[in-house]
């Protein structure tokens, strides 16, 4: 996961989370002793599902999980961390600068505020929202030949069943459940990959389907 050249960066990030992350309320005090098992390694294996040289958008990035971890593991990736809360983006800006991660930018805002509509090869997230809402936030950012690759719990199959209507309305292809890190982790990581059913039609659907939350506010 973390090669010898990148392990020192991962250790520095872990130290930031264990101290500043806890002090600022981004990580619970009980999480500090198990940062590697439950957070860093759990996120690092997500890199297995991301193609080379991809542009990645991590929505609801929080303390940088999984976005900062992916940037450490995979310097070939271009990572955009999207987070609406100022105290979290302040921490992310400081962490990115401290670690010297030139492949990361931080955007304060929500997914619907990101300007690059259909502009990312991969849109990821971790424990942000139920799948139905996550699809509506994420898919408008996914490029025609890109995919949502989100970390999910073991009940992801049930979420897919509950989200069938949304998957169809948005024009998504059949979801694929990924089980990552089975040979390296005590508890493997579950992720969900959702691509477009017809990439040639991306961006052609009515705005009501792509931005339902925005339309509800009008």
Question: What would you say this structure looks like, in words?
Answer:
Strands 3-2-1-4-5-7-6 form a seven-stranded mixed sheet, with helices on one face. It has nine helices and seven strands. 37% of the residues lie in helices and 20% in strands. It is an alpha/beta fold and 218 residues long. The chain has a single domain, classed as 3-Layer(aba) Sandwich (Rossmann fold), CATH 3.40.50. The C terminus is likely disordered. Helix 1 runs antiparallel to helix 3.
Topology:
Elements: H1 7-23, H2 35-44, E1 55-59, H3 67-73, E2 78-83, H4 86-99, E3 104-108, E4 120-124, H5 131-138, E5 142-152, H6 156-162, H7 164-170, E6 176-180, E7 189-195, H8 207-210, H9 212-217
Parallel strand pairs: 1-2, 1-4, 2-3, 4-5
Antiparallel strand pairs: 5-7, 6-7
Helix pairs in contact: 1-3
What labels would you give this structure?
single chain, 218 residues, alpha/beta, Rossmann fold, disordered C terminus
| Distance linking N and C termini | 46 Å
**Helix/sheet category:** alpha/beta
Mean pLDDT: 91
CATH topology: Rossmann fold
Give the proportion of residues in helices. 25-40%
Share in β-strands: 15-25%
Please give the largest β-sheet: 7 strands, mixed
Spans of at least 5 consecutive residues whose pLDDT stays below 50 are 207-218
The ordered H/E elements are HHEHEHEEHEHHEEHH
Query: Largest sheet, order of strands side by side?
Result: 3-2-1-4-5-7-6
CATH superfamily: Vaccinia Virus protein VP39
- The total of helices stands at 9
Radius of gyration (Å): 17 Å
Q: How is the quaternary structure best described?
A: single chain
Give the overall shape, derived from the CA principal axes.
globular
CATH architecture call? 3-Layer(aba) Sandwich
Question: What is the total number of structural domains?
Answer: 1
In total, the number of strands is: 7
Which class in CATH terms? Alpha Beta
């Amino acid at each position: 996961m973390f090669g010898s050249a990148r392990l020192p960066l991962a250790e520095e990030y872990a130290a930031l989370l264990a101290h500043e992350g806890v002090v600022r309320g981004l990580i619970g005090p009980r999480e500090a002793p198990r940062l590697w098992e439950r957070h860093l390694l759990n996120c690092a294996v997500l890199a297995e599902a991301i193609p080379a040289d991809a542009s990645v958008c991590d929505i609801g990035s929080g303390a940088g999980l999984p976005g900062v971890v992916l940037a450490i593991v995979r310097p070939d990736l271009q990572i955009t961390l999207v987070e609406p809360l100022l105290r979290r983006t302040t921490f992310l800006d400081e962490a990115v600068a401290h670690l010297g991660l030139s492949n990361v930018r931080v955007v304060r805002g929500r997914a619907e505020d990101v300007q690059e509509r259909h502009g990312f090869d991969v849109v990821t997230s971790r424990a942000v929202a139920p799948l139905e809402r996550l699809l509506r936030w994420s898919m408008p950012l996914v490029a025609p030949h890109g995919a949502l690759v989100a970390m999910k719990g073991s009940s992801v199959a049930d979420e897919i069943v509950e989200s069938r209507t949304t998957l169809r309305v948005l024009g998504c292809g059949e979801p694929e459940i990924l089980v990552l890190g089975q040979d390296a982790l005590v508890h493997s990581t579950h992720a969900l990959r959702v691509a477009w059913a017809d990439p040639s039609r991306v961006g052609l659907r009515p705005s009501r389907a792509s931005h339902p939350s925005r339309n509800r506010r009008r």
